[in-house]
Design a protein that fits this description.
Elements lengths: L2 H8 L8 H13 L1 H4 L1 H9 L8 H13 L1 H4 L1 H6 L13 H13 L1 H4 L1 H7 L9 H13 L1 H4 L13 H13 L1 H4 L17 H13 L1 H4 L15 H13 L3
Length: about 240
């Protein structure tokens, strides 16, 4: 069944100049790594000649020397131990400036003058602020504000003193409640008090049993010849199966 198809598959020929074949070849040439680096490989085979005094070589050497830590510190290592310029460190402007900056930044030296003068303040005794402070202290002092009753400053038999004692006794809470001391410890029943009576009256007003009378409690006798009774009897006789 598939013999003819297999034979036809082997005999298919595609023209090499069709657009699809040309596009596939162009794409293969674009993505080919070998063709991409072919020019670079040919240039490497030809070789190159670079002199030692070429500008790129000198630039690279200068950049390397600048970046080198050894070359960076070479001048400092040579000058170490050969300080020349000032007889002493105090006469050096840079060292003097650094010492001055350190002294300004030192908190202890900054506050030294203040700490030395802090305990050497002398205020006159009759200064206005001192007198005002003393008067304020007298006004807010609890000792001077309170005058206890037993420290009398006048005769005890004066009229104003006697009147003051009577006023104190009237205003005293102990004297005011002294007539209630005999009631302490005595029991008391709430029956008959105003609140209890008021609660009972309110309960009677809200009691549904006392407010309404139920129908079964009413004495009622139906009239035998009333129209509705006669009609009910007639309907019952008409609907009776007997």
């Amino acid at each position: 069944y598939t013999e003819a198809w297999d034979a036809d598959k082997k005999s298919i020929h595609v023209m090499p100049d069709t657009p699809d074949i040309l596009l596939a070849k162009a794409n293969a040439a674009n993505v080919s790594k070998k063709l991409y680096v072919e020019a670079w490989e040919e240039a490497k085979k030809k070789g190159y000649d670079m002199r030692a005094d070429a500008i790129p070589i000198k630039t690279a050497k200068a950049s390397r020397d600048i970046a080198s830590d050894y070359k960076y510190k070479e001048t400092h290592e040579k000058e170490k131990g050969h300080y020349i310029g000032c007889p002493s460190a105090k006469e050096d402007p840079k060292l003097a400036w650094a010492a001055r900056a350190m002294a300004l930044q030192n908190d202890r030296l900054y506050k030294k003058a203040y700490n030395d003068s802090k305990t050497q303040i002398h205020i006159p005794v009759d200064a206005l602020s001192v007198q005002a402070a003393k008067e304020c202290q007298t006004l807010v002092s609890d000792v001077d504000y309170r005058q206890y009753l037993h420290q009398w400053t006048c005769l005890p038999d004066q009229n104003d003193v006697i009147h003051a004692r009577q006023a104190y006794d009237l205003q005293s809470d102990n004297v005011y409640k002294s007539d209630l001391e005999w009631l302490r410890g005595i029991g008391w029943l709430t029956e008959g008090s105003v609140d209890v009576v008021k609660a009972k009256k309110a309960q009677e007003l809200l009691n549904d049993r006392l407010y309404r009378t139920r129908p079964e409690q009413l004495k009622f006798t139906s009239i035998a010849d009333s129209p509705d009774v006669v009609l009910a009897k007639t309907n019952a006789m008409q609907l009776s199966d007997v």
